Amino acid sequence: MNKICQILSQSTETLSLQVASLGLPLFDGYDEALSKGYKIFLRAEGNHLSILSSALGEQSCLEVNFVSGALAHRRHFGGGRNQDVCRAIGLNRQRNLKVADATAGLGRDAFILSLQGAHVVAYEKNPVLASLLDWARSQALKQASAESDEELLSVLNRLNFVFADSAYALKPEDFDVVYLDPMFPQREKSAKVKKEMQILHQLLEDDKSDPYQLFASCLTAARSRLVIKRPVTVSYTHLRAHETVLELVYCG
Ligand SMILES: C[S@@+](CC[C@H](N)C(=O)[O-])C[C@H]1O[C@@H](n2cnc3c(N)ncnc32)[C@H](O)[C@@H]1O
Asked: Rounded distance, CA 141 to CA 206, Å?
């Protein structure tokens, strides 16, 4: 059993089974991975699991983390239900919505929606990301229980991750709202985000998705609304700070 299996098997047996098929090597250190010629790999460091790319150096990594970093900041100081993504979903009018995040990625949007009261099922079809999401959720649950953090516990209890292709896994009219944030080429605001996106693109470069099937499945699964995050196609200079838009498609 390799190290990622050991780490992940702390949470559930199912996860360690998943991990057997991840196909990404795991190392303690960056140099060792580099010396073996790996371009993209997992690093286990203390209680942190992250994805690194040899092209981007040791400082840039992708991590799923629900207790510290950007999401913790968002939890304590975020913009509440008036954030764009929450308004697009409709959480500014009604909490408690049942939402599918069809493209979970690093789980950030899913966490923010759950934080604002939605019951979220987030689908991720990449096995590495799906395992990291599940692992990060169980780590966060452990920490929240240990610290009796009732708010974080209730957010995590409203948030579930499913390892599946949402182009085929969603059932008709199963959710109030479906959220879709597929990968697209994009210029980003900060260098750090840009590097994160580069690692994500590298990880997902062999992805052969059918965007039409995914869109059709999301549209059918939503009872009231489908929200699509997409790039702004007209690049006026004043739009550069906001390179994505949230498009709403009303259903039913
Ligand atoms: C841009 S990222 C989403 C980022 C996410 N909104 C966040 O806040 O972290 C897109 C993700 O969707 C996943 N994805 C794409 N098509 C999918 C599908 N049909 N089913 C499930 N996941 C999919 C990709 O593997 C990738 O991880």
From this structure: 32
Considering only CA atoms, which residue is closest to atom 4 of ligand 1?
105
The atom of ligand 1 lying closest to the CA of 103 is: 12
Which domains are assigned to the chain? 65-186+196-250 (3.40.50.150)
150 sits in which H/E element: helix 150-157
186, 197 contact by CB (below 8 A): yes
Over its C-alpha atoms, the chain yields an Rg (Å, rounded) of 18
d(CA 245, CA 236): 14
Q: How do the pLDDT tens digits run along the chain, 252 residues long?
A: 345 555 555 554 444 444 545 678 888 888 888 898 889 988 887 778 889 999 999 889 999 999 988 888 888 887 789 999 999 999 999 999 999 999 999 999 999 999 999 999 999 999 899 989 998 999 999 999 999 999 999 999 999 999 999 999 999 999 999 999 998 765 555 666 688 889 999 999 888 888 899 999 999 999 999 999 988 765 555 444 456 788 888 886
* Residue from 123, 133, 183, 197 to probe ligand 1 pocket by mutation (most atoms less than 8 Å from CB): 183
Strand pairing class (159-163; 175-180): unpaired
Angstrom distance (rounded) from CA 72 to CA 156: 13
In short, whether 103's Cβ falls inside 6 Å of ligand 1 is yes
Q: Would you say the CB of residue 199 lies under 6 angstroms from ligand 1?
A: no
